[in-house]
UniProtKB/TrEMBL annotation:
Source species, domain of life: Bacteria
Name of the featured protein: D-3-phosphoglycerate dehydrogenase
GO molecular function: glyoxylate reductase (NADPH) activity; hydroxypyruvate reductase [NAD(P)H] activity; NAD binding; phosphoglycerate dehydrogenase activity
Residue intervals of the D-isomer specific 2-hydroxyacid dehydrogenase catalytic domain: 43-312
Catalytic EC class: oxidoreductase
Residues in D-isomer specific 2-hydroxyacid dehydrogenase NAD-binding domain copies: 122-293
Organism: Stieleria varia
Record's keyword terms, sorted: NAD, Oxidoreductase
Enzyme Commission code: 1.1.1.95
Amino acid sequence: MSTDDITIERVAVPAISFAQVPVLVAHLRSIYPDARVNTQCVPRHHSTRDTIEYLRDCDAAIVSFEPINAEVLAALPRLKVVSKLGVGLDTIDPVAMRKHNVRLGWTPGVNKRSVAELALCLTLAALKHVVAANVDMRAGKRPLQRVGRQLTGRVVGIHGCGEIGQDFIRLLKPFGCHVIACDLRDRSEFYHEFDVESVSPAALYARSEVLSIHMNVTPMNRGLYNADVLDQLRPDCVLVNTSRGTLVDEVALRERLKRRQIAAAAFDVFEHEPPEDDELLNLDNFIATPHIGSGSMEARLQMGMAAIQGLTHHFLPQPGEYPFECYT
Ligand code: 8YV
């Protein structure tokens, strides 16, 4: 972690979630008066070319989904610090960062409560058919019965037990669920404290009545929830995803939801955002939200302040080491 050996004069912020919060923009500009901020909220996050264009001539950047890869860094020799708004590192290539000596500002867990609350909200909504019932009501129907399930006492599986997965488990406490979890890292201390059963991926798929995904995407797990894995889920499983859409094969999921091979799914994240598969989005056993996990005022502020701090508190990513263990 370094604070003082890099001089930053020009900062660029293409991240819309930052630019939308005036207090963050004002705070940034009180430190870096000439900061270029995407206050017009032009979407840029899918394009390498636009990212290069926006970050040209800058020493530091606050990014959300903009790709920070070999091509971008080769084109931006002046860039010394990339500070991440939020926690997902899937758009950041640690090998290229290291090669170009570009440092990373990153605060783990900065939006964990906000995302964990949404995971709980989606879980309850799916178990109780809240959205489908509301859609019926709006369509003029007044269904007399819509039998759902309680969360209390259910087997809840957590795939990825980092900051957000752990916070979700904290929120589950009053529901008396049997929590099972699977993680590459040793989480035994947390598991012990919160009475969590550590299980294999196969057991997680086979036993979870609610399965909530909380993994970082890496080259190792991209597309992990493919047809083969989805076929291992229980027919009464509710699959919840508030992490990254690229972990799940959406076409395979859609087909299984349609034939009720999987009871329901509730997703805040999609392979391509905004999502385009209207057939999936309109299934009555699928709940979709447009990546709002960290979209609370509290989280936005915390993320933004942490990202500003990341411009001066940063580290050189090391592939193979935390938080990039899955890279070589
Ligand atoms: C943020 C996210 O909205 O933290 C993350 O990784 O995906 C989101 O919660 C995003 O990073 C905003 O920049």
